[in-house]
Amino acid sequence: METEKHFTGLENEAAYRTFFKNAAARTNLLAWYEIPQNSTVLVVNETEGSLTEMLKEKGAAVTGVMAEELWKLPEKSYDIILHLGVVESENDNIRKTYSKYLTYYKSHLKEQGVLLFAVPNRLGLRYFAGCKDENYDSCFVGPEGYKAGMTKQALSKKEYEKLLEETCFFKIEKYYPYPDYHFPVAVYSEEWLPGEGELNANIRNFDKDRYLLFDESKVYNSLIREGLYQEFANSFLYICYMAEVENEEKVIFSKFSNERSPRFQIRTDIVKKPDGTRLVIKYPLTQEAKAHVKKMQDDYERLTRECADEKITFCPVTWNGKGAVSSFAKGTSLQEILHQKLEAGKDEEALELIKEFTKRYRNYLSGRNMEFTNDLDMVFSNILVDGDIWTVIDYEWSFRKEIPADFMLYRVLFRASIELSAYEAMSLDNLLAIAGIESEKAFEYLKMEEEFQHYISGDEIPVRDMVSVLGRQVIPFAGNRSEQDKNAERLLNLYGKNAVKILFSIDKTEKQNGRVVCSGWACAKVRGYGYIPVEIRIFDEDGNTVEMPVVRTNRKDVGAILKGNGAKEEYIGFDAVFHATAGRKYTICFSAGKCRKETWLTGADN
């Protein structure tokens, strides 16, 4: 398949190498893993960076070496060996080469030593979806099978596990860093696999441009339903033990919320104790976040004390000096109950359940005043149902201030429309209609939600945004993109002449290395019809049209609120990417028929 000519994004390898070396997100791979004080750790394929620094901060004595230099090290045994990434084959026999490394690792571990083996999956879903191989500037080389001369190769799950089994470690545990082992946001295990709707952090092509051939989140949902997630996970972390491990508690899942302001950065672990019981522990990741986590116990006590509904309870949490600890509560999440009904085609029952929730939630909120604690995190996934008892299991975002009750309800429904977006019945307009929240108020609440998200994130640049900061492109599949453009053009031709008003919002503008990425939404109000997409153009300060691709994106939030027949959410959002000159001004123009609105954009950074 001819692909290279389409990847024309600006290359910035030095910037990526700096980002890769220093990004805090790289520590997520092992931040949850206990490293005993004074452990000797050999790190293969990394000599310095945030990951090795974290190991040193845990009290380890770290030796870093690139794989090809491994054989030059003096003979020594280690408590832990951390292997990162692929190796280079010898004589085109990649399996023999991996076996050689694994044999070396086993022979250089102490009696109670552990190998942490973090590697990419050549059959990872991202490589089917349009990502290039991490070692080659080509698509599909892993799924198709590496060609002769490609000496650095990843293996599949089956291939890795056969080699590990042949190496005869005492015990092997399997973990799945997501979206990959380089920059994970979560680490799953065989004892805690992802559920449908959880895997949404898929645009992470920091090193290379990529195609977007299909929606990875939707395909992941299908794989999860079929029990195939593990085979198509993008990477693996195998924990290989030399000897029997004492029956201690272990982390079976870890999720990182560190794309936030430092005062809110936390890690959430699910821990399995020797007797099989499970705990949820939230840890602060920064000194500033300690107060945020520590106050969860106080929030629990206040919410419990202030709740007048004896059938609504809050899962107890205690501060143990390091984190906020809570036990697993009894029941099934309201989101899972809705999912089961929707999956069975029982849409009416699902909507009736939401009506019951709306009534009960409003009763719960009624009469609350400024002295009460309001929980903004009382969403469907955080409510466990056991008979007629609700147990709220997460109240991280609790505030001792007055918050409009309908905004709190809007936020619950807004989250549901995203997390259950696979089901048409869960569209935001349906849910808002059930709650009786009018469009005007919904717009107001949408702005409040955006302000709340900014409050959480602060001025931090989330890791997900580094794709555009590093100048990488996400190139939609031509067939999919042309269909969107064709439909947008059709609506404009049919109804544009009757447009009476342009609505738009610039959500963010990012500038880096001669490029500007402008993202937001825009539409035109049409008399007697509803809302339609608009034409989007950019002009320089001399009035010349700037060549640029416009990718129309899904905006269920805005599309649902507008409710017009033409308000197709997949046409309302946009990402416009153009090359710009530092210091010059540009105008982005939205138009439909005789209606036109524009706003200034500044040029790119040097």
General description of the model:
The chain is built from 18 helices and 30 strands. The protein starts with 12 loop residues before the first helix and ends with a strand. It is α+β, with helices and mostly antiparallel strands and about 600 residues long. The chain has three domains: about 5-245, Rossmann fold (3-Layer(aba) Sandwich); about 330-455; about 475-600, Immunoglobulins (Immunoglobulin-like), CATH 2.60.40.10. β15 and β16 (about 325) form a beta hairpin. α12 packs antiparallel against α13 and α13 (about 430-435) crosses α17 (about 555-560).
Core attributes:
twelve-stranded mixed β-sheet, Rossmann fold, alpha+beta, Immunoglobulin-like, 3 domains, five-stranded antiparallel β-sheet, 606 residues, globular
